[in-house]
Design goal:
The chain contains eight helices and no strands. By secondary structure, it is mainly α. The longest helix has 31 residues, at 83-113. The two termini are 19 Å apart. The relative contact order is 0.14.
Length: 166
């Protein structure tokens, strides 16, 4: 993730403001809020401003993912070149379905909020959409998960890692 963040910050920082780069990185799958806060720390965006930008950027695409992911995956399954990607989505859902269904709101919250590879708001919304979790409940859970991730990543990006970088 750090190499992707470095790539995007170095490529976009000459063209866009640090805040815009932070916002864009926060919206991207895989990088999300975690990458946005790391980028903001590297570009010396003030912490509170970075936190607000990252949370908004991370949450902005999620309602659309929740609304459309099932239809998109079904379409991808019927279209040869994207069938493999659809199967990756389905296997990701199958891998996490039991835990999320068992613990419902809090299962999805922890899945989104604990910063591990392959977790986050995008993946959480894909899983929630494909298991047909209530959208309002899923979105509320993802919001709480993103807030949890923001606390953890703030400590890492602006605390521990921030002390090393600066």
């Amino acid at each position: 993730m750090e190499s992707l963040v470095t790539f995007f910050t170095s490529t976009l920082s000459g063209v866009l403001s640090s805040e815009a780069v932070t916002f864009i990185i926060s919206m991207l799958p895989v990088l999300e809020l975690r990458g946005g806060l790391l980028a903001a720390s590297i570009m010396k965006v003030p912490y509170i401003k970075a936190l607000i930008i990252c949370i908004i950027g991370n949450l902005l695409p999620i309602p659309f993912v929740l609304l459309f992911i099932e239809r998109i995956v079904i379409w991808m399954e019927h279209f040869g070149p994207t069938k493999g990607i659809a199967m990756v989505f389905r296997s990701k859902v199958d891998k996490h379905r039991a835990e999320i269904e068992k613990y419902d709101f809090w299962g999805l919250t922890l899945f989104v909020g604990i910063p591990l590879p392959g977790t986050g708001a995008w993946t959480g919304s894909i899983v929630a959409g494909l298991i047909r979790m209530n959208r309002k409940k899923a979105f509320a859970s993802i919001i709480v998960g993103v807030l949890l991730a923001s606390v953890i990543m703030s400590i890492i990006s602006y605390g521990v890692l921030g002390a090393v970088i600066h």
